[in-house]
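User: Before I run my own analysis I want an independent prediction to cross-check against. Here's the chain; please return only the structure tokens and, at the end, one sentence I can use as a sanity check.
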Amino acid sequence: MATTNRDRRSAFERRCLSKAAKRMYRNSTKGVRKAIYAAECQQRGKSALGAGK
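Assistant: Structure tokens:
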């Protein structure tokens, strides 16, 4: 399996999605990853990117 080297990451990739979740849901759809991201943000008490105020 070839690895891809990217210089830029999206804010979604940089923000509060944990490394464990990134590994666990690596091949999942974007919707699944966004749901995990929202759950982790809620758990930490942070506002999710793109969430309305």
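Sanity check: The radius of gyration is 12 Å.
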